[in-house]
Amino acid sequence: MEGKMILSSQLRIIGPVGVGKSSFINTAIRRNVTTVGHDLKSCTAEIVHAITPYPSDPTRRVVFVDTPGFDDINADESEILRRIAAYIARSLVSTSFHNSNK
Ligand SMILES: Nc1nc2c(ncn2[C@@H]2O[C@H](COP(=O)(O)OP(=O)(O)OP(=O)(O)O)[C@@H](O)[C@H]2O)c(=O)[nH]1
Ligand SMILES: [Mg+2]
């Protein structure tokens, strides 16, 4: 693996509760990597990510990031936003660390 550079694109899937964010990721990645809801309550409670290679280019990969939905009457929206922002900040730090070690 030494000297081999893998380019990553991070796709953060963000939106209201129940619009199909997790379903979209499972369909795009062709695996059940994140749980789909089956009632009116919000389903995804934690931020999770799943990595898949580009089908046509092994030097690239896509990181899908599933996030808790907005507009949930039982959740604090600003807390969800704060967690997403913290996740993005952490992933930017780890990406620049990773790249600086190439
Ligand atoms: N008809 C239809 N239903 C869908 C579609 N995508 C998802 N669903 C259904 O919508 C419901 C919610 O889907 P999820 O993928 O869990 O939605 P989510 O946005 O991740 O929801 P939260 O994690 O609660 O924010 C499930 O019952 C899915 O089967 C779609 O394209 N069409
Ligand atoms: Mg979900």
TrEMBL record:
What is the top-level taxon of the source organism? Eukaryota
Listed name of the protein: Uncharacterized protein
> What species is given as this protein's source?
Hygrophoropsis aurantiaca
